[in-house]
C-alpha cells in the first residue's frame, strides 16, 4: 500500500519566520515528512506540496486545483494536511471522488511545537485511510467525521458533529 500525502498549508505546517523581526508564522516544509521519518511505519508514501496557505486564505480556485489534482492522480489512498478553520468547506468542495479514499487532517499547534497534536492527528488519518472505503473524511481530535456533518466549534476549537 502507498499513501499520498498532500500539503495545502495550515497551522500543522507553520514555523517561525527566518527573519529577525516579526511575530507572524510562515508555512514551512510539509510537517508530515518529519512525522513519518521518526515513526516506525509499514507502508510506502509520497509527499506533494500543492500550495502553502493559511486555511483562511484558501479560496475556491485553490479548491478547484486540489480537486483536479485528486481526480487526476493514480493514488487511491490520500491524506491532505489543511488548516482547521476552513477544512470542512474544502473537504465538502472536494466531495466523493470515485475510487479514492481521502482524509483531511491538521493541527491546532504547529508540528514543530512540543505540545502539538500533529503526530496524533496524522496517526488517526493514516489508520483511517487504511480501513475506509471510498469517500472524503476529516480526522481531527481523535474523531473521524464526514465533512458535511461536522464543524469547528468557535468556543472550544474542537471539531463536533452537527445534530440532525
Description:
- By secondary structure, the chain is of the alpha/beta class.
- The chain has a single domain, classed as L-asparaginase, N-terminal domain (Rossmann fold, 3-Layer(aba) Sandwich).
- The chain is 26% helix and 25% strand.
- The protein has four helices and ten strands.
- The strands form three sheets. The chain has a six-stranded mixed β-sheet, sandwiched between helices. A two-stranded antiparallel sheet has the order 2-3.
- The termini are far apart.
Low-confidence stretches: none
How many structural domains can be distinguished in the coordinates?
A: 1
Major β-sheet profile: 6 strands, mixed
Q: Which H/E pattern describes the elements?
A: EEEHEHEHEHEEEE
Short note summarizing the structure:
The chain has 164 residues and is α/β, with parallel strands linked by helices. The chain is built from four helices and ten strands.
Architecture blueprint of SSEs:
Blueprint lengths: L1 E6 L6 E2 L10 E2 L3 H7 L6 E6 L10 H13 L4 E5 L5 H8 L6 E5 L12 H14 L3 E6 L2 E3 L4 E3 L6 E3 L3
Parallel strand pairs: 1-4, 1-5, 5-6, 6-7
Antiparallel strand pairs: 2-3, 7-8, 9-10
